[in-house]
Every structure is written in C-alpha cells, then in structure tokens.
Amino acid sequence: MPMIASELKQRLVDIAGGRGVLDRPEDLLLYEYDGGVDKGRPDLVVFPRTTAEVAAILAAAKESRVPVVGRGAGTGLSGGAIPRAGGLMVAFARMNRMLDIDLPSERAVVQPGVVNLDITLAVQPQKYFFAPDPSSQKACTIGGNVAENAGGPHTLAYGVTTNHVLGLECVTPDGTVFNTGGKEPDHPGYDLTGLLTGSEGTMALVTKVIVRLMRQPEMVKTILAIYDSNEDAGDTVAEITARGITPVAVEMLDGVMLRMVEEATHAGYPMDAAAVLLIELEGLKEAVEEQVEQVREACLASRAREFRVARSTGERDLLWKGRKNAFGAVGRVSPFYYVQDGVVPRMQIARTLHYINGVSKRYGLTISNIFHAGDGNMHPIILFDARKPGELKQAQRAGEDILEYCISVGGSITGEHGVGMEKMELMSKQFSGETLDMMRRLKALFDPEGRLNPGKLLPTGKGCIEIRQPAITGAGTVY
Ligand SMILES: Cc1cc2nc3c(=O)[nH]c(=O)nc-3n(C[C@H](O)[C@H](O)[C@H](O)COP(=O)(O)OP(=O)(O)OC[C@H]3O[C@@H](n4cnc5c(N)ncnc54)[C@H](O)[C@@H]3O)c2cc1C
Question: Which of 183, 215, 247 is the last residue of a domain?
Fold first, then answer.
C-alpha cells in the first residue's frame, strides 16, 4: 500500500507544480542516501519554491498523517536526511536565492537551499565572508548547516553555525509559519533561534536564515608543521594553547590520510611523514607575524621535524585544497568509508589517536584520521568493503567503540555532523534520562505527532545497529 495516496500527490502537484514532484522509483533512488552509510527511500520528493508552498505542503502532509523529512544537499554524515519511515521528502534545491545582502549591517538573509560557499563568494569582492566553512562547503546548504549546527576548520576561532545565525523563518509540521530572532543581536524572550539551530530537522523546517557576515582579516598566514609521530602532532595543540594563542584553524592529517590526499591533489604534503598539522593565523599584520614565531616554537617543542609557512595565496590555497578534498581522496582508495565525529578534550588528542590505532588493529580495519585538532573534534575514517559480508557492521562497531571512548574521557559523540539515525542510541550514554526527557518534551511542543524526521536524534532504547538495519533494507520501511 503506497504511503502517498493519489489525492495527496495531486495536491502536492497543485502546490509545487508538476516539475516540483518526483515519485518514479528511478528518481527516488537518488534520495535514499546521504553522505553516511544508511539508506531509506522516500515515497515522494517535493521541491517547494516559497515559504507559502512549504506551509501548504506540511498542512497537506498533516491531514494525510504522512511523515516528512527536510533535505538540503544530502551531504550529511549521520543519516539526518534519510526518511526512515518513508513518506514525504521536502527538498530545498529550488529555494536557493539570497534575499538581502546588507553590508552596512553585516547581515545577509538567504533561503535554506543556498550553498554555503556561495554566501562568501557573493560578498568576497567587498572583503566580507561567512565564517562557518564545512569542508563540504561547495555543496552543502545553509538549511542543512542550521539543522546540523555545522562546523568546519575555522570554527576554532569563529565558532559554529549557531554563532553566525541571528534569526530564522520556520514552518512547523502542521504548516504554521513563525519567525525567530532578527538582524539585531540578543532579541528578548526564549532563544528559539538557538534551540532550532542544531535540532536536526526534527522540530520545524527552516525557510529563511539571517546570517552574520564578517570582515576579511588584514593578514592570513598558513603553516604546515610536519611530524614523525602522530602523538607529537597531537601534543602540539596543547603547546600552542599554553602560549595563549588561538589560531583560526588547527587541522591534523595522519600519515595514512596525507598520503591519500597527496596522491589525489599534489598539495605538497610530505609522503613519508607520520602526521601534519595545518595551522592558520589571522588578524592584524604585526600580531600575526609575532604569533607565527610563537607557533613555530610550540611546534618545535613538540618535535616537529619541519615548519613551513605558505609564501603565497597560491601555496595557501593548495594546502587547503588538499584538506578540503580529503574525503574525495579516500574515495579513490577505498570503495566505502565511514566517517566518525567524536570530540575529546584537547589534552586527550594524543591518547585518543593511540586508542583509535588499537581499534584499527582489533577490528582489522584501516582507520585514518583527519580532523579539527584545535577543537578536539576527531574524524577517524574507517575504510571497509560493504561487498564483504559483515564488514559494514564491523566498521559501525569500530565507530561506536571510538565514540564510547570519547565519552569516557569527557568528550562527546558528535562535534558537528549531528546525531541523526547513526548515533541516537548513544545519546543515552551521553545524557541522563531527565535531560533526554526534557529534549523529548521540547520536540513534542513543535511536533506532537512525531511526524517530522522520525527515528532521529532521540534514543529508543534499542542498539544502534539493531535499529539501523530496517532502514538499510530500503524503500518506505515504516519505522
Ligand atoms: C566531504 C564532506 C565533508 C564534510 N565536512 C564537514 C565539516 O567540516 N563540518 C561539518 O559540520 N560537516 C561536514 N560535513 C557534513 C555535512 O556537509 C553537514 O552536516 C552539512 O551541514 C549538511 O548540509 P546538507 O545541505 O547537505 O544537509 P542534508 O544532508 O540534506 O540534511 C542534513 C540535515 O538537515 C536537515 N535539513 C536540511 N534542510 C533543512 C531545512 N531547510 N529545514 C530543516 N531541516 C533541514 C535534514 O532533515 C537533515 O536532518 C561534511 C560532509 C561531507 C560529505
């Protein structure tokens, strides 16, 4: 029995137009996955053009009691945009306009389907930029960034998406449109913008976003520090912090990763090193020049074997090209990979890398590391071959093992990729029952019927792998 009755389909065609609705199996196939390892096919994908259309779509879905999932670019890494219960997917690809760029106020108002990097490209000629820069920024959308509270290499100094979103326009699952915040900071009342940013598309669909724009710094220096030991690279982060310096980015690539990246991008990374740190400093010229020297001292104190400062914008761009195209580089080497997103206190980075190495040996899987070291946000990438029976499960177990370790040292199960369907059962290891109950009650205020992005974020009490299985089996599986 199809979940989308022909009357509902006709209503959606009337709202979004014939070209705004997909329901042929060959089209739906493209919407059954995101950047993670889970799958689940929607019964219909609808592409609204305006807020009014989103509201009408959600009102129609409510009447038919159909589950709804929002989708940006589908680059999410925790299964957030996977329709576990089938039903309706609302894809924001046609709501991709910048509505207002207000440089005197340093604000922009954009639709949710705008691609992250396009905001910076639009204001770059006037020497402004949008700070949150996920490595997927050429593809991911601002709606997806808001839902996941996305981060990126430069969040060490600038903060994550929530620090750059001042207001939202949203639609609740019953079709009610409401606004939060505004162009001015610190609006009175409850901070609904803060609550909804990072709510993983489980409370409301976002139809407009007010973002903060920032002035480009006077000087940027990008540094490559090269190490013969993973742990030494890890220790450097604490050495830099001890000197009272906050670089805008401290990214680490281990030996396995930098060899894959170098072969794919020829960015100039050393093929024989155990690890490198990509460090970026920004600010006023005199301050940055002084900090470069202090960072050099910190790196050498942690036994860096070489310390290079990019001499031109070209060299700097090449180093970042290597970092930002890393996942693509992994794809050239392994048919499947599974990215994790645990956070540990900075002082625990070296020890955590050692633990991950042990997990790699225990599970017999290659694990390489590329991560936002300055934030302690680890991204172990587990290589596996899903065509070999049992290897996907092994990779998932290895990922869970690492995340449980992160919790045990005072960290967290996600720094930026969200909980989604991937890590929801681990939420009960991170939070008390009382805290989770408070979250459930908040969700119910916005979505009392539990139809918006069901089977995400909040734990059910079943094991992660046990609950994940039905979604992998495919189309329209009712959760
Ligand atoms: C190569 C690669 C590198 C990455 N690097 C980073 C990184 O550095 N930092 C980082 O934080 N993430 C990173 N990610 C993860 C991912 O890009 C981010 O989570 C991003 O924010 C997802 O945006 P999206 O448009 O693809 O959203 P989708 O994957 O389509 O959706 C993600 C979630 O957002 C919800 N959603 C989408 N649009 C809306 C809306 N309008 N209203 C309400 N909910 C909505 C969906 O329901 C889903 O729950 C990376 C991913 C890849 C593949």
Answer: 215
Give the tens place of pLDDT for each residue, 202-252. 999 999 999 999 999 999 999 999 999 988 998 898 899 889 999 999 999
CATH of the domain at 281: 3.30.70.2190
The tens digit of pLDDT for each residue in 113-122 reads 999 999 999 9
416 close to ligand 1 (CB < 6 Angstrom): yes
- CB neighbours of 324 closer than 8 A, spacing ≥ 6? 135, 137
Q: Full-prediction pTM beyond 0.90?
A: yes
Instruction: Domain count for the chain, please give it.
Output: 2
Q: Which of 374, 446, 397 is nearest to 171 (CA)?
A: 446
Q: Is residue 319 part of a domain?
A: yes
Residue 378, domain member (yes or no):
no
pLDDT at 478: 24
Ligand 1 centroid–CA 148 distance in Å is 6
For the Cβ of 95 lying below 6 angstroms from any atom of ligand 1, the answer is: no
Domain that holds residue 104: 98-215
Q: Give which of 184, 188, 153, 143 is closest to 167, Cα–Cα.
A: 184
* Token representation of residue 453: 């992005």
